[in-house]
Amino acid sequence: MPVPPAAPRPTLEAVAARAGVSRATVSRVVNGGAGVTEQLAARVRRAVDELGYVPNRAARALVTRRHDAVAVVIAEPETRVFTDPFFALQLRGISEELTARDAQLVLMLTRGDEDCERVGRYLAGGHVDGALVFSLHLDDPLPGLVRRAGLPAVFGGRPGDPAATPYVDCDNRGGARAAVRHLASLGRRRIAHISGPLDQTSAVDRLDGWRDVTEAAGSGLDAAPDLLAPGDFTPEGGAQAMSALLERRPDLDAVFAASDLTASGALRTLRDAGRRVPEDVAVVGFDDLRTVAQHTDPALTTVRQDIEEMGRLMARGLLDSGDGGVSRPDGTTWDGVVLPTTLVRRASA
Q1: DSSP, residue by residue, 1-36
Q2: Is 283:257 a contact under the CB 8 Å cutoff?
Q3: CB-based contacts of 124: which residues, under 8 Å, 6+ apart?
Q4: What is the pLDDT at residue 334?
């Protein structure tokens, strides 16, 4: 059966004829321009609805120099982004805010210098109005590429590059302190730490928070360096680090893991080693990924950061930006926003 031809799309001229106004007036209303009375604007909007007119985004971009599109750049490979619930939550917050503003999300992932160069070329090509960049590593070229592209940007997490502002982060160091103090309040004295990758500021800040408490004068806590094991924010990394810790410090009685996924791997190793949680070893994570923390055995005590809200704030700040600075409602600008964290107690500690 032949496919019937598609009905022609309504044009600006058709909307103008229906509303009884000029084509220029319709263009100003559709593109958000000024100089049109509310009475005329209402007639245009009514004609748009009646005809089902959809603006041509390419033509609109030529007029407004806006594309209504935002690049979301994650400095991680696909294998990490699509298996870690953290990224899903942050993308959900970003997507909700962009959708509410009728802006499109363009997702870009990087796993090496060639990918970064590709992203840099795309950003410089005038395809998007700005960039949201997160999961940066300390030697990451992305902040410099964004600057050279001349795009407004907001970074997720405190960047290692002091010029990479504005950013949205959580209180990683304060949250880590709260986790370790909680373990100490339970009478634990040999509190190990499984870190995240130390080329990321979030992992460094959480490590510093652990040290703040364990190395404090008069704390009574064991601050030996062999209670620290490197991890990578993954379950596999947590399992391997926990195994190394048990081998060299079988007397440890608590673990602060730098992420919930890390903690889930550590719990698996403890169970395989016959250690009871929390009776023999208490465990605290970081993030409060509900799909992880509420389904570990036992359920995970952890530090909650509002990941979705971080995503929403990043997108809102970018869309409200002017001259590259992100504006608060009162018109002032900010370099960084740090959201509070909260200890969520469950069965593991």
Answers
A1: -PPPPPPPPP-HHHHHHHHTS-HHHHHHHHTT-S--
A2: yes
A3: 145, 148, 149, 150
A4: 63
How confident is the model at residue 333, as a pLDDT?
A: 54
DSSP assignment of 57-103 equals HHHHHHHHS--SEEEEEESS-HHHHTT-HHHHHHHHHHHHHHHHTT-
Whole-prediction pTM: 0.79
User: How is residue 53 written in tokens?
Assistant: 């007119």
A 10 A CB-CB count for 4 gives 6
Q: How many helices (H) and strands (E) does the chain have?
A: 14, 14
Q: For helices 172-185 and 201-214, give the axis angle rounded to 10 degrees.
A: 40
State pLDDT tens for residues 79-96: 889 999 999 999 999 999
**Buried residues in 330-342 as b, exposed as e (16+ CB within 10 A):** eeeeeebbeeebe
Taking Cα atoms as reference points, which of 137, 228, 220 lies closest to residue 176? 228
What's the rounded mean pLDDT across residues 150-168?
85
Beta bridge partners of 133: 73, 155
Question: pLDDT band at residue 326, thresholds of 50, 70 and 90?
Answer: very low
> Cα–Cα distances in Å, from 66 out to 31, 103, 140, 230?
10, 10, 28, 44
pLDDT of residue 32: 65
Mean pLDDT across the stretch 100-117?
Answer: 85
Calpha distance 127→197 (Å, rounded): 33
pLDDT at 211 over 80: yes
Residue-wise pLDDT tens digits, 253-262: 999 999 999 9
Per-residue pLDDT, 324: 40
Cα distance between residue 235 and residue 261, in whole Å: 5
Rounded to 5°, the CA angle 260-263-268 comes to 130
Q: Where do the DSSP E strands lie in the chain?
A: 69-74, 104-109, 130-134, 153-156, 167-170, 191-194, 228-229, 254-257, 282-287, 301-304, 326-327, 333-334, 336-339, 342-344
CA separation, residue 326 to residues 45, 74, 123, 164, 321 (Å): 31, 20, 19, 13, 4
